Amino acid sequence: MSRFALETLEKIIIPSIICLFFVLILLSLANLAPFTLATDDIENARGILEGVGVEGLSAIFAIVISLTLMAVQFASQQYTHRIMDIHIKSLTFWSVIAVYLGSLLYNVIMLGRLEEPVDGRFVEISMLLTALCFIVLIPFFFITMMRLRPESVISRLLSRIDEDYINSLKGLLKGGETGVKGGSDRLLPIIEIIERCISNDDRSTARFGLDEVQKCYMHHLNEENEAYVSPYFLNHMMGIGREAIIEADDDSMVQVLRIFGEVGAYSIAKK
User: Fold this and answer.
1) What angle do CA 201, 205, 209 make, to 5 degrees?
2) How far is 57 from 69, CA to CA, in rounded Å?
3) Which residue, 9, 112, 185, 223, could crosslink 180 as a Cys pair with Cβ 3.0–4.6 Å?
4) What pLDDT does 178 receive?
């Protein structure tokens, strides 16, 4: 799945589910809902609010967050620590946290104010919020697993190499340098992922990363910036080539050489 498809899915599916349940909650409050989920029995209400709404959701929330962060941490160690940054800043992650914390807070407040006579509408809202918490886990796990794939991370990081960054390279590369110092190098984390893939024998991801870096390079290359853009990109390509030689990855080495050949042919054609 492409980065744009994943971002579109993230912006649509979970907000749509939340909006749907928000409408159901409004209908329940207005006594217009075509269903009845709860009775006015106080013991039944206490069991729902305490047993499911507080204790159940608390346990599930802790397990979900723990397992997700473990998976993200493992992927970060395998490829790059920036995977953790991408996950923490994602809309899906914070939407799930907001849904669970909002549901827990509602159930705690309603449990503390529970008294006879019980208004069944507020118990219905607790049940709807519980259902929402379970349903959002489906797209949450799917989107998270897709985001942890190195291909998705590479595509997302490459999107940061835009025209403004390419223009800034002229000022960042001084004195004939071919590399950007410090954390300013936006291409470096992508190169790190490709090198990790080569060392982990993940050749398909390494091939994908090299192709995407080449596309980005050729997309931004022109006569005005060739003097500093080509050394910047090709220096990183040489680093990948060295890693491929060390790991005896012939496929990646051949691909790096092919890229240098295509760049040379392009430069000759453009003089």
Assistant:
1) 125
2) 18
3) 185
4) 54
Side chain identity at residue 53, one-letter code = G
Distance of CA 186 to the CA centre of its chain: 17
How far apart (Å, rounded) are the C-alpha atoms in residues 198 and 245? 10
DSSP 8-state symbol, 184 = G
> CB-based contacts of 209: which residues, under 8 Å, 6+ apart?
150, 151, 154, 190, 193, 194, 197
The percentage of residues in the chain with a pLDDT greater than 70, rounded to a whole number, is 89
Binned at pLDDT 50, 70 and 90, residue 2 comes out as low
User: 11: Cβ–Cβ under 8 A, 6 or more apart, which residues?
Assistant: 91
Q: Specify the higher pLDDT residue, 175 or 71.
A: 71
Is pLDDT at 8 greater than 80 in this prediction?
no
CA distances 178 to 16, 105, 187, Å, are 47, 54, 12
In one-letter notation, the amino acid at residue 195 is: E
Using omega within 30 degrees of 0 as the cis cutoff, is the peptide bond preceding 117 cis? Answer: yes
* CB-based contacts of 60, cutoff 8 Å, min separation 6: 133, 134
Closest to 215 measured CA to CA, from 133, 129, 126, 155: 155
The answer for residues whose C-beta is within 8 angstroms of residue 34's C-beta and 6 or more apart is 27
As a residue count, the chain comes to 271
Of 109 and 34, more confident: 109
**Which two tokens mark 26?**
């409004």
In the numeric block, the tokens 């995977």 are attached to 83
Sequence spans of domains, the chain: 3-148, 152-270
At residue 21, does pLDDT exceed 80? yes
Query: pTM of the prediction?
Result: 0.74
Amino acid sitting at position 169 = L
